Amino acid sequence: MSPDYENHSGTRPAAWRDDLTGGDDSLFAGRPEPVNEYTGRTLTYEVTGRIARITFNRPERGNAITADTPIELAAAVERADLDPRVHVIVVSGRGKGFCGGYDLSIFAENGFAPAEGAQPTAGTVLDPVVQARNHNPWGTWDPMVDYAMMSRFNRGFASLLHANKPTVAKVHGFAIAGGTDIALFADQIVCAEDARFGYPPTRTWGIPAAGMWAHRVGDQRAKRMLFTGDSLSGKQAAEWGLAIEAPPADELDARTEELLERISRVPINQLVMAKLALNSALLNQGVLNSGMISTVFDGISRHTREGYAFQLRSATTGFREAVRERDEPFGDWKRAQFEQPKD
Ligand SMILES: C/C=C/C(=O)SCCNC(=O)CCNC(=O)[C@H](O)C(C)(C)COP(=O)(O)OP(=O)(O)OC[C@H]1O[C@@H](n2cnc3c(N)ncnc32)[C@H](O)[C@@H]1OP(=O)(O)O
C-alpha cells in the first residue's frame, strides 16, 4: 500500500485514534477545536490553507504590548500548534510597524512608578497579571513583582520558540524593544530592508530577552546593540543573521508568502522533528537560562535611579517626551543608527 502523505501531513484517519485510545475520545479532551478565524483584544487569528496567521491589531498604538498580548499570543500559537491543518505559523503587525514594544502610554497614564510619597506595601505580592490588567502595575515597590510580571510576558512570547511547528515573524516598519523580544523568538524573521530593529530602553532601563540576541548575532554584536540601544536597519539585520532575508518593503508580503508556501509543502511530522532537533541545540546553548536572568535584571532595572527617572518623566510629561529625551542624544532617533552619516 502506498503511503498516505496527506494523512501524515494533515488529518488522520479515525482508526489512528482508535488504535491508540481504544475509542476513548476523552483522552483528547482539552484540545481546542480548529477554528478558521477570530479577533482578540490585541490580535487577529486566521487559518488559510496550511498557514496560521497571527496579526497584532493595535495599529493606533504601533501594536504596543499590553497585558493581553502574551496571553493572546500564546493561546493563538497553541491553537495553531494543535490544528492538524496547520504547518506553519506567521506573526506580523497591522499598520505602520510590527511592534513598538511595551505600551508606554499605559504605564505613563497609570503610573508605572509609585505615585510621589506612596509607600511600598511590604510583603504583598500581587498577581502580576491582575496588576497589569488593573493598570496598577506597581502595586508593591518590589523588584520581584516586576520580575514575575516580565517573566510572564516573556514566557508568552517564547511560545513562538516552543511551538512544535515552525514560526515566522514578518517585520515591517519597526520591531522595537519588546517588539524584538517577540520577533526574535520566532524561528525565522523576514523583514523589509527599511525595517528597524533595536532596544533603545537599555539607555535608561529595561533588559531584553538577551539570549536570543546573542544566539542570532553573536555576543559581540549583541553587546554592541545593548550597550548603545542603537538600532539596525532590516538590511543590516539580514547581513548580521538576525533576519533570514530583507527584501524591499513592497516585496515583503510576496517573499514571505513564498517562504510560508515552501515550508507548508513539507509533511508536518518532518517539520516538527526538524524544529525539535534544532531547538535542542538552541536550548543546550542556554537561551532560556539567559532569558531568565534577563527578566530578573529587567525587573530590577525599573528600580534603578535611571529607570525610576524615566518612568517618572513618562508619567509627568507623557511617554513621547521621555522617549525623545532618552533617544535624542544618540542622534536622529527615528533612523537606524547604522545608516546615519558619520560626523
Ligand atoms: C523592558 C522594556 C521594554 C519596552 O518595550 S519599553 C517600550 C520601548 N519602546 C519605545 O521606546 C518605542 C517608542 N516609540 C517610538 O520610538 C516610535 O513610535 C517608533 C520608532 C516605534 C515608531 O516610529 P514611527 O514609525 O515614526 O511611528 P509613530 O507614528 O511614532 O508610531 C505609531 C503610533 O504608535 C505609537 N507607539 C509606538 N510605540 C509605542 C509604545 N511603545 N507605546 C505606546 N504607543 C506607541 C506612537 O506613539 C504613534 O501613535 P501617535 O501617532 O498617537 O503618537
From TrEMBL:
This is Enoyl-CoA hydratase. It is an enzyme of class 4 (lyase). PANTHER family: ENOYL-COA HYDRATASE, IP11341P-RELATED. One of its GO terms (molecular function) is enoyl-CoA hydratase activity. NCBIfam families: PRK08272.1. Residues 1-35 are annotated as: Disordered. Its EC number is 4.2.1.17. Belongs to the enoyl-CoA hydratase/isomerase family. Keywords: Lyase. SUPFAM superfamilies: ClpP/crotonase. It comes from Nocardia yunnanensis. Residues 1-20 have a biased composition (Basic and acidic residues). The keyword Lyase applies. InterPro entries: ClpP/crotonase-like_dom_sf, Enoyl-CoA_hydra/iso.
